[in-house]
Specification:
Length: about 140
């Protein structure tokens, strides 16, 4: 009788262990399905984020190219403007040199005119002397 009871207890223990093991397997597979669903939704989320980031990157690349083009235009315009300013400065310097040269030539002309007037006066006096001596 004690042997039968012990045998029943061992059978019930084995039966309980078997039921627990099967139950844990079922829960693990259900938990795995839930985890797979979570991983699938997370994967879809990540794919959506990736596509958004890729779209934004493409937009910024396009904008970057446009801005580089505009910058190059402005740099070229600045170079051209610098060249024009340099030419104007050189022209202004040349103009100042020319004005100084004209002023110098005008002074020289006045001096020569003054010398000519003096020479003319001397000639007139000489003519007057010649006429007096002849006359």
């Amino acid at each position: 009788m004690i042997g039968k009871m012990a045998l029943c207890l061992i059978v019930v223990l084995l039966f309980g262990f078997l039921i627990g093991w099967l139950f844990s397997k079922a829960l693990k597979s259900e938990k795995g399905d839930i985890e797979l669903d979570n991983e699938d939704s997370r994967l879809k989320e990540l794919e959506k984020l990736y596509s958004n980031e890729k779209r934004i990157t493409n937009e910024y690349s396009k904008k970057n190219r446009e801005l580089k083009g505009e910058l190059m235009k402005k740099v070229n315009l600045l170079k051209d403007t610098s060249l024009v300013v340099d030419e104007l400065r050189k022209g202004s310097t040349q103009k100042d040199k020319n004005i100084a040269r004209v002023n110098e030539l005008e002074m020289l002309l006045e001096r020569k005119e003054s010398e000519l007037r003096e020479f003319e006066t001397v000639l007139i006096k000489a003519e007057d002397m010649i006429e007096k001596l002849r006359g």
